[in-house]
């Protein structure tokens, strides 16, 4: 089956280092592993091309970095050009990562009749209003309704995101109700790319992986390191706008943190080597509706066979549970004292860490692999792995 994968979000480089880029690469990788031909269409390329995807050259329609209103119009035009190209190239399935001003999926499916899958990773309209600038809010709302209405399946990374899509696209007259085609499918993890490795025998390494932004709670982690009673070491893999402030905080508190900076996804396992504990210190963002993410870092820790300490928010408790057994320690959000105590307890208990790590790896393999996640997405769209529908 020939699959057109589309990402018209100018904030995401398909070959970048942040979580959204990893997500794109993993879905594409699994589609190819299942025997499909994937053609990638995007507005940003990025320079961190994984070795196993170096033959995949995206078809690009760039969006200039201009003032907000013109940028939004440029996104519309770029998506129109991508849709025209996909129609000309031909496809058996369209898979689009939702962006604010792209109707590519709807345009292609209307013209060709091929099925489409829309993947929604966040309530982008609200995010854009809150954190950036949104000029044409009504246009963005129309785009979402049209895309969801055209998709064979809309897959959302969490229940809050799925609920947001349903609210935003509900038809008061009930004439074209797409709610039955909106599904929750949490993120997966590559159990091939990320595998367990031995702990550093000389120290207990506590590792954070992710973009350094306020909603990842790294400031609380550094405070927890200053409060720690056990001698664990802190490693931070990632970059972002808070890097300078976090370095300054660590220096001020006397915390020796190993900041690794931005790391290409294929190199993350090497930088995680020697770790004993993976930490996801998400802060309190003001209610469950704000904890709408599907935390790939938690899944990567499980796949790496690490003991996990994470905030008790959003989807995290669900990801760490297998039946009645929990494969991680949950702590209250925005509580560095509780975070320090949980990390201290695990740092002092190597046998407990080992048991937790083995169980977490098994959980990742059996329930959270990208292979099973992508197969489920195709199934929801009524498309089998061999391309029949």
Span between termini: 11 Å
Radius of gyration: 21 Å
Structure annotation, total helices: 14
Going across the major beta sheet, what is the strand order?
3-2-1-4-5-6-7
* pLDDT averaged over residues: 92
The biggest sheet, with number of strands, parallel, antiparallel or mixed sense and barrel status, is:
7 strands, parallel
Helix content: 40-55%
Structural class: alpha/beta
Q: Choose one word for the global shape.
A: globular
How much strand content do the residues show? 15-25%
How would you spell out the order of helices and strands?
EHEEHEHEHHEHEEHEHEHEHEHEEEHHH
**Secondary structure tally: strands:** 15
The unreliable regions are none
Task: Note down, in words, how this protein is organized.
The protein has a seven-stranded parallel sheet with strand order 3-2-1-4-5-6-7, with helices on both faces. Strands 10-9-8-11-12-15 form a six-stranded parallel sheet, with helices on both faces. The chain is globular. Helix content is 41%, strand content 16%. Helix 3 (104-112) packs parallel to helix 5, helix 7 (218-227) runs parallel beside helix 8 and helix 10 crosses helix 13 (350-367). The N and C termini lie close together (11 Å). The model has no long low-confidence stretch (mean pLDDT 92). The protein has 389 residues and is an alpha/beta fold.
Question: Can you summarize this structure?
Answer:
By secondary structure, the protein is α/β, with parallel strands linked by helices. It has helices at 19-33, 68-89, 104-112, 124-131, 137-150, 159-169, 218-227, 243-253, 268-272, 296-303, 316-319, 336-347, 350-367, 370-380; strands spanning 2-7, 37-42, 59-60, 93-97, 116-120, 153-156, 182-184, 205-209, 233-237, 257-261, 277-280, 307-311, 321-322, 325-326, 329-331.
């Amino acid at each position: 089956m020939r699959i057109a994968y589309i990402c018209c979000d100018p904030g995401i480089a398909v070959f970048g280092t942040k979580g959204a880029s990893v997500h794109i690469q993993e879905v594409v990788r699994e589609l190819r592993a299942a025997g499909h031909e994937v053609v990638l269409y995007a507005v940003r390329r990025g320079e961190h091309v994984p070795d196993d995807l170096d033959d995949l050259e995206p078809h690009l329609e760039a969006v200039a970095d201009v003032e907000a209103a013109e940028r939004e119009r440029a996104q519309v035009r770029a998506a129109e050009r991508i849709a025209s190209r996909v129609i000309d190239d031909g496809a058996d399935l369209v898979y689009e990562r939702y962006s604010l001003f792209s109707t590519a999926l709807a345009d292609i499916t209307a013209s060709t009749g091929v099925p489409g899958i829309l993947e929604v990773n966040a309530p982008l309209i609200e995010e854009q209003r809150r954190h950036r600038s949104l000029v044409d809010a009504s246009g963005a709302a129309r785009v979402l309704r049209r895309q969801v209405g055209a998709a064979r399946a809309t897959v959302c990374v969490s229940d809050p995101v799925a609920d947001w899509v349903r609210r935003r696209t509900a038809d008061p007259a009930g004439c074209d109700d797409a709610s039955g085609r909106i599904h929750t499918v949490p993120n997966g993890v590559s159990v091939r790319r990320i595998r367990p490795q031995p702990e550093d025998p000389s120290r207990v390494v506590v590792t954070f992986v992710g973009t350094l932004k306020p909603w990842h709670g790294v400031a609380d982690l550094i405070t927890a390191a200053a409060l720690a009673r056990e001698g664990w070491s802190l490693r931070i893999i990632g970059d972002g706008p808070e890097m300078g402030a976090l370095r300054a905080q660590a220096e001020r508190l006397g915390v020796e943190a190993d900041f690794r900076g931005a790391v290409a996804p294929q190199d993350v396992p090497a930088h995680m080597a020697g770790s004993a504990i993976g930490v996801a210190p998400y802060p309190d963002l003001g209610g469950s509706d704000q904890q709408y993410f599907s935390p790939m870092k938690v899944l990567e820790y499980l796949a790496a066979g690490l003991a996990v300490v994470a905030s008790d928010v959003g989807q995290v408790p669900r990801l760490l549970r297998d039946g009645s057994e929990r494969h991680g320690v949950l702590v209250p959000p925005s509580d560095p004292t509780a975070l320090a105590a949980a990390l201290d307890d695990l740092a002092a208990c190597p046998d407990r860490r080992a048991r937790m790590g083995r169980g977490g790896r098994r959980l990742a393999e059996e329930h959270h692999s990208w292979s099973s996640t992508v197969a489920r997405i195709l199934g929801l769209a009524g498309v089998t792995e061999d391309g029949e529908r």
